[in-house]
Amino acid sequence: MGAKKRNKRNGRIRLPRKNTGYTELSNFFDRHEGFDLMDRGSVDIDKDHKDLDRMLKEYWNQPNTKQLNIRIPPGAKRMIERLAKRKTLEVSTLVRMWVIDSMRREAFQP
User: Fold this and answer.
1) How many CB atoms sit inside 10 A of residue 27's CB?
2) Tens digits of per-residue pLDDT, 14-49?
3) Hey, is 6 helix, strand or coil?
4) Domains of the chain: which residue ranges?
5) Which listed residue, of 16, 26, 78, 102, carries a Cα 20 to 30 Å from 94's Cα?
6) Are 83 and 77 in contact (CB under 8 A)?
7) Closest among 52, 51, 34 to 43, alpha carbons compared
8) DSSP-assigned letter for residue 14
9) Burial of 17 (0-12, 13-18, 19+ CB in 10 A)
10) Secondary structure string (H, E, C) spanning 19-39
11) Closest CA to 16 of 30, 28, 32, 1
12) Is 8 or 104 the better-scoring residue by pLDDT?
C-alpha cells in the first residue's frame, strides 16, 4: 500500500520520501494524478517561478548530452519529418525547440 495510504483525517495521500528512487516515484505518479494530489491538499502550486526561470536560462547554456526516447504513431513521425524539412531543420532540432517552448509556457502558468 505504501505511498497510496491515505491520512484518515483529511484524505491526504502520503507522498514518497525525498530519497525515493526513480522506480518508486514512477509507480507513485502512475497511480496518482497531479490534480487529485492538489485537490486532496497533498501538493500545492508553487507560484514562485524564480527557480524555473533560472533552470530555463541554465538549460540554454548546456550541451545536448542527454537522450529522451519517446514512441509516437507513424503518421505523427512522418508529419514531424515533413515540418522539419519545410523549416530546413533536423527532426531532433525541431522537436527540441517544441519541448523547450512547451516547458517555458508550462513553467509560467499558474
Assistant:
1) 16
2) 788 878 777 787 778 778 777 777 777 777 766 766
3) strand
4) 2-39, 50-107
5) 26
6) no
7) 34
8) P
9) exposed
10) CCCHHHHHHHHHHCCHHHHHH
11) 28
12) 104
Q: Which DSSP symbol is given to 13?
A: B
* Nearest residue to 96 (alpha-carbon basis) of 71, 60, 53: 60
74-99 tens-digit pLDDT? 999 999 999 999 989 899 989 988 98
All cell numbers assigned to 26? 514512477
Question: HSE on the CB side for 61, CA within 13 Å?
Answer: 4
Chain-centroid distance, C-alpha 58: 17
70, three cell numbers? 519517446
CA separation for the pair 101, 81 (Å, rounded): 19
